[in-house]
Specification:
Elements (H helix, E strand, L loop, with lengths): L5 H4 L4 H23 L1 H9 L2 H12 L4 H15 L5 H10 L4 H25 L8
Helix pairs in contact: 2-3, 4-5, 6-7
């Protein structure tokens, strides 16, 4: 974590404001659709909007194809440990759990799944969290 250039992370430009507004509008649009049609909203959320937007911004910023490819591959591996949440959370809610305890439990489960994914993939030569 010490290799992260925090001064770059916390410096903002006019382009960052544009990226923030466009990204926020996509999320707002999908949540507005949810009020009318929860299945359509789920379909739109299932589309990798966040990743697609991030890769578009990476391309606009002239980042290398290799960085975009690494981002895409990392996203694939990190999506997998989130998938159980989409089955466990509805089960918990339908079993009488309150929203916040169920969400908290699912966050912990997802963290465990992330850790397990990182450990398993290291054994196969894919290091998602280089030291």
């Amino acid at each position: 974590m010490s290799k992260i250039p925090w001064e770059k992370v916390f410096s903002f430009s006019a382009m960052d404001v544009v990226k923030l507004l466009v990204t926020a509008l996509v999320i707002l649009f999908v949540t507005k659709i949810q009020v009318v049609n929860d299945r359509l909203s789920a379909l739109l959320i299932a589309l990798p909007f966040t990743s697609l937007i991030a890769m578009v911004w990476m391309n606009v910023e002239k980042q290398s194809s290799d960085r975009i490819a690494n981002h895409s591959e990392g996203t694939f591996w990190f999506v997998l440990p989130t998938l159980p949440m989409f089955l466990i959370l509805p089960w918990m809610l339908r079993s009488g759990w309150g929203f916040w305890p169920a969400l908290g439990a699912n966050c912990l489960i997802t963290i465990g799944c992330f850790w397990l994914t990182v450990v398993i993939l290291r054994h196969f030569g894919t290091d998602l969290m280089p030291k």
